[in-house]
Amino acid sequence: MSQYVIAIDQGTTSSRAIVFDHDGNIVSTGQLEHEQIFPKAGWVEHNATEIWNNTREVIGTALAQANLTRHDIVGVGITNQRETAVVWDKNTGVPVYNAIVWQDTRTQDIVDELAADGGVERFKSKVGLPLATYFSGTKIKWILDNVEGARAKAEAGDLLFGNTDSWVTWNLTGGPDGGVHITDVTNASRTLFMDLETLAWDDDILAVFGVPKSMMPAIKSSSEVYGHVHTSQLLREVPVAGILGDQQAATFGQAAFEAGEAKNTYGTGCFLIFNTGEEIVHSKNGLLTTLGYKLGDAKPHYALEGSIAVTGSLIQWLRDNIGMISSAPEVETLAAAVENNGGVYIVPAFSGLFAPYWRADARGAIVGLTRFVNKNHIARAALEATAFQTREVLDAVNADSGVDLTELKVDGGMVANDALMQFQADILGVPVIRPKVTETTALGAAYAAGLAVGFWNGLGELSSNWAEDKRWEPNMDSAERDRQMRLWKKAVTKSMDWVDEDVL
């Protein structure tokens, strides 16, 4: 009888379940989008109950599509949108507030308050992260400070916190009926609360934020059996055996297991991760120090990360907010109709600027407009914005590591866009390589679970599954590359210093 691993990919815009075979090939998929909730400018929320209900449904869809039952599945791996905070009542399983999404900027006042003593890098030497609205810690504090009765319940031990990996795992393993409240090191490293060296919650930082330790999930490795699916679920009694935050999962799925290897994922945002091995490297160039993975009792692997908030979501914005296109693939068609961007640059600082700038005061800008410009130029500029931002992050990685990357492995939804990938190679000046299986986020979670239950024997076996699908070679001359980057950097400066106290 054939056996398979199922990965749950709880992402920013949708939840998916993907069944993989032993060769790392996709057997079947279930997917459902969930509502994006924008109560105010800068606020982004999800309904955590909707996410859990969708997760259950997509598991059923994936199993039915392949005509499989729980008996065919040897393990469940989970990957998730990181930093998106859920706080819920452990007795009822009901969230006390919507999930606050990683893109949300409402906690800037909390960041400013905490940074008044020691600056935004106050905790960075210990947790690898600057104080920023991006991470889970400020979101938990906001919920406790602003949701009526939440702090009293938390201090009584009745509330639990988790990124969406913890939320899905807790529900999958029983919820109020014995659900397992855990997270893995990669997700824990995105909270502002985990000590990079001890891999434990830091009591002093929790106290500064006013977050009771009883809310926090137990920190586990990325690959071990955490518990089993509850008997009330379709996958009942199947071991839940792998958890990786989405960007670390994509790195794992790309088989970038060793120091010096890297990948870039093009999704809602863009995330470049550079594996630094067992060494903790503190960035001097605006990158984050984070956990790459930890397999069972083995030593952890660390990474440098360049996080870009808005890439694919810029294309969604053109579709949903502006109505310039009716489907995302139309952008490539429009962009191909012109030879260049017509002098237009789009800086999509919708949530401020993330790496390498970390400027909360920035907002989106379109610059270089003339009467010559049409929607084709704007479409092209929207695609190019992703490539320019990636180049800036890659420059920071090269500076921090002291070794220039000679190629870039890529994955995520936007890598199907040939025009973008070619421009990416051009503006980087190095080859860009797409693997045959581009669903590397889900694949990485499947790998972590499969290793824990013996479905795969080791990293060597996983590396042999990786295969190149397509390669883009740079063909832009260096003078033009330098000119484009100079103009891009000028455009970025125009997005800064926008937010004053009276800006909505």
Biggest sheet statistics = 7 strands, mixed
The low-pLDDT segments are: none
Mean model confidence by pLDDT: 93
* Number of contiguous helices: 16
SS elements, strand count: 21
CA-atom Rg in angstroms: 22 Å
Shape: globular
Question: Please, could you describe this protein's structure?
Answer:
This protein has 504 residues and is an alpha/beta fold. It is built from 16 helices and 21 strands. A hairpin with a 3-residue loop joins strand 13 and strand 14. The longest helix is centred in the C-terminal third of the chain and has 27 residues. It is globular and about 65 Å long. The protein starts with a strand and ends in a 9-residue tail after the last helix.
Note the topology:
Elements lengths: L3 E7 L3 E7 L5 E8 L11 E2 L1 H18 L7 E8 L5 E4 L9 E2 L7 H8 L8 H4 L8 H11 L3 H6 L3 E4 L1 H9 L9 E3 H4 L14 H7 L8 E3 L2 E6 L10 E7 H8 L8 E5 L3 E8 L10 E6 L7 E8 L3 H9 L9 H7 L8 E3 L17 E3 L7 H27 L6 E4 L6 H11 L3 E4 L4 H13 L6 H7 L2 E5 L5 H18 L9
Parallel strand pairs: 1-5, 5-12, 9-10, 13-19, 19-20
Antiparallel strand pairs: 1-2, 2-3, 4-7, 6-8, 11-12, 13-14, 14-16, 15-16, 17-18, 20-21
Helix pairs in contact: 1-6, 9-14, 10-12, 11-12, 12-13
